[in-house]
Amino acid sequence: MASTARKQLRIESMHNRVTPEEWQARIDLAACYRLLDIYEMSDMAANHISARVPGEDGAFLINPYGMLYEEITASSLIKVDYDGNILARPGYGDFEYGVNRAGFVIHSAIHKARHETDCVIHTHTWPGMAVSSLECGLLPMNQTSMRFVQVGYHEYKGVVLDLAMQDELVADLGGHNALILRNHGLLTTGNTIPEAFNAMHRLELSCKAQLAALSTGQPLRPVPDDVLQATYMNYQPQTRRPYGVMEWPALLRKLDRISPGYDA
Questions:
Q1: How far apart are CA 155 and CA 180, in angstroms?
Q2: Does 10 map to a domain?
Q3: Is residue 60 classed as helix, strand or coil in its secondary structure?
Q4: Is residue 264 in some structural domain?
Q5: pTM (2 decimals)?
Q6: SS3 assignment, position 234
Q7: Does the residue 2 lie in any domain?
């Protein structure tokens, strides 16, 4: 039987079609996609990470629905507005990619409501889905998870396809930078792309640690509330440098070694 010819993915360069500031945002966002895949937080072509377009109010970048995270490049990202209109996208060769509807609904809601937020990350990892399905939610049982003492929760009401869900989603996120979508997954935000990635990486570790501890069947060691609150405050922006600043250059060097091409 003759094999079916594989369609070719040929991504048109966007480098000369955008501002230098947007191009840098595209590079960092593409890097974030690659890093989520490397750290096993991707879900084939599902899920999404978005970034606000610098100097362009009402526009953000998001992945083309159908590409794997390991394939994402700076040029492959699609620019959309808060109404879902595609403002710019490259040619993809034999493919005609668009934007995932649920991704648009979730990300446009947060970018529209929180103008200080540059990046939003949403995942469906097995630790995140497991903790989101537990009645207890995320437990502040170790130093890393104490960073999320104040985390938002959003009740599951079906796949997020309806714009009517946006107000409730934003209200449940509140002023937090992390949201647990009940029976669904995890979401983090950041004033920068590195900050949002740092938050998701730590939230994912917190979920893994909780599941590992609960699986032993042994009692959890409680931490006094005053210690929980003091530790939480030590993680807040007013008491420490912004997250992601120190490790992001090192993470980009890691990508240059093992997953080059994200900046094309």
A1: 9
A2: no
A3: strand
A4: no
A5: 0.94
A6: helix
A7: no
Task: Please classify residue 38 by burial: count the beta carbons closer than 10 Å to its beta carbon, then call 0-12 exposed, 13-18 middle and 19+ buried.
Answer: middle
Q: Among 126, 102, 117, which residue's Cα sits nearest to residue 204?
A: 126
CA distances from 122 to 29, 56, 67 (A): 13, 23, 16
- Is residue 94 within 8 A of residue 58, CB to CB? The reply is no
Question: In 3-state terms, the chain is what percent helix, strand and coil (to 5)?
Answer: 40, 15, 45
Q: What angle do CA 76, 112, 155 make, to 5 degrees?
A: 95
Alpha-carbon gap, residue 90 to 208, rounded angstroms:
38
Domain with residue 245: its CATH number is 3.40.225.10
- Residue ranges of the alpha helices (H) in the chain? 20-38, 101-113, 126-132, 166-173, 193-215, 225-234, 248-258
**Which phi and psi (to 5°) does residue 237 adopt?**
-55, -30
- Between 49-63, 68-82, 92-106, 124-138, the lowest mean confidence (pLDDT) is in 92-106
- Domain residue limits at 175: 15-254
Backbone angles phi, psi at 2, to 5 degrees: -70, 140
- The tokens 């104490």 sit on which residue? 146
CA distance 138 to 232: 14
**Interatomic CA distance for residues 113 and 97, integer angstroms:** 27
Number of domains into which the chain is organized: 1
Strand pairing partners for 121? 49, 188
* Positive/negative CA dihedral, 181, 182, 186, 192: positive
Model confidence pLDDT, tens digit, residues 73-128: 999 999 999 999 999 999 999 999 999 888 889 999 999 999 999 999 999 999 99
CA angle 238, 36, 118 (to 5 degrees): 40
- The reply to whether 78 falls in a domain is yes
